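Note to self: keep these together.
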Amino acid sequence: MLVSYNWLKEYVDIKDINPNDLADKITKSGIEVEGVEVLNEGISNVVIGYIVEREQHPNADKLNKCLVDVGEGDPIQIICGAANVDKGQKVAVAKVGAVLPGNFKIKKAKLRGEESNGMICSLQELGIEGKIVAKEYSQGIFVFPSDVEVGTDALEYLQRDDAVLELGLTPNRADCLSMLGVAYEVAAILGKEVTLPDTTYPTSTEKAADFVQVTVENNADVPLYTARVIKNITIAPSPLWMQGKLMAAGIRPHNNVVDITNYVLIEYGQPLHAFDYDKLGSKEIHVRRAQSGEKIVTLDEAERTLSEDTLLITNGTVGVAVAGVMGAANSEVQSDTTTVLLESAYFDSKVIRKSSKEIGLRSEASARYEKGIDPNRVRLAADRACQLLHLYAGGEVVEGEVAVDTLTAESKVVSITMEKINRSLGTALTVEEAVAIFQSLKFDTMVDGTSISVTVPTRRNDITIEADLIEEVARLYGYDNLPKTLPVGSSTPGGLTSYQKKRRMARRFLESAGMFQAITYALTNESKVQAFALEKRQPIKLAMPMSEERALLRQSIVPQLLEVVKYNAARQNESLAVYETGVVFLSKEGNELPEEREHLAGALTGTWSSHPWQGEKKVVDFFVVKGILEGLFEKLGVLEEVDFTRSEKEGMHPGRTAEIVLNGEVIGFLGQVHPQVQNDLDLKETYCFELNLSKLFAVELEDLHYTAIPRFPSVTRDIALVVAKETLAGDIQKIIAEAGGDLLKEVSVFDLYEGDKMEEGKKSIAFSLKYFDPEQTLTDEIITKAHDKVLAAVKEKTGAVLRG
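Structure:
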């Protein structure tokens, strides 16, 4: 809401406080003033001049040579390029030495050989935004009425000797969407009285009921609709003072009738609409819901298709306005209008909100109807408009109104005790002090001991409960005056949960390993929603998706990470290692909310490490990814409980994919993306993994135990076993580890041979076994006994024999 300081002075005596100080007081009372703009700041020496002569510039087709009287003796010559400049006009003149917005200084100049001693200004050149300049003058200079005095301050006539306060209103303070609403607020803050506008006017002997009949289809949509008739209107520009106030409020002037309805809108917060009575096409106003597909051309010359949610003002047959939003072009007030039908109504706020949303149009009127207007100002605003139409449009107001009125506009009564106020605010206010605050807001009060009954005027629809009254007391008593106390009670130190600690640990480990965190969309499309999923369920589709590419909730993170890899590869970043922790969504039966599971996924491609000086280069492969995950599991203390088992998975390479098993339960997978998928995405060899973090983090971390440096040496034995080609090295490693008992500390594979010297269908796998006893030196007898047990177990379970 833009509030003119000079306009506000008409309702409240604020001459003893400057705009900036007033803004501070309003802000401290609970309504933020986002800024104060001084309209004539940086502008000086601009006066009203009279163009005595105008002729074509002798050396330029688009320039005019003007003699201008600025009230200082002989006229001065000014060269002007405005197309609408002419003899006999009164215009704004920036004299030599004047300063215009942007610190633009006016100097004597020669334009195409002719002297120019100043500048004839457009409103834009005086700092007024083009969008609020009347269309008549938007492409040229502004022409003043003939009765203005030559040589006087042009900015004063244009109401630019003013300051505008921009209020940042919260949705509940709709009462301050009007000058009177702000006036009540400022009067309460400063302890002043409010002077209300005069709304009296003469009427003719004719009756409004002879001109129009009003009917309403649904009284819940329109509890109150009033129509007034004003005859013998003369369409002309509105007075300069009115135009200036409208421009200060951010509204473009049009003509006296339209400007008056806008002026009253800003003054009272009550939207009005003026119809050209002779263009209505009937003597009837009928308010109804639009039919589905019904069309109307609004004042902005756009054709709009309506639905049954749109409230429509009709002449009994066709629409003449979208109720509470904008009028139609077929009944617009124009230069030939002589009779006006003035609408002032109370519409249901929810209906107007739907209408505005449905046609995609939000206006100053709809913004106020949506938040709720004061039902007791509907007729007052119409009276004010009739008075102004009589004064400034020569209108003859027909007696009476035609109305449909089922509106009950009763003031709310909210009661509260002083004990409740003081306990909530920590104050020691008396009943008299609280009553004085309510009365400064023009709230009627009734006191019964320490209880106060407050009658809240209908303009303040935000006050309904005790807490609202407490807030009014607090903000007007002064937040700075409330006593300061420290909180009392026990407190709990903050900290991360076990799950959060593990997630942070996992992220830090992956980043230390050389991976970068990515954040991708949780929305995907039909072709990707189940790709790489650990568990597939019925896809969950959004009711109103942004696009088909973002229509479904993901069940795996890997597809999005592969898109990240693809995006980077297309930009010559071919070595990439990224990870993401994020949520996947799994549907449930019925209409239950989906199950959300947090997963960890990664994608790697290209070169993993490179040492050109040593001639070493390592590309990403299965074992690089497996090594990263083993390091992560070791960091989390679960490595000994994890197994990697060969598997096949849709979208993954059949020979380079493994399931990740934790304590017998599959928690994820890793491996190479299937070559066909790589080809479809235009990727080189790429590896990925995905883990269910909920299952991974469910295993509790064991406390670290430190052991002394061993005093006894370990013994290493290497064995090469010949087994069938389909036998997995991992299975043999598990058998060795189990059979070796407590003495066997490490088992590792260090060689694989499948050459032509090996029997067909066989292969040789070499293992290194480390035996160690912290309590004694191992003898050959002890080691041989344990080693023979290992060989016997391997032979029994896999048929392996020692290679000769």
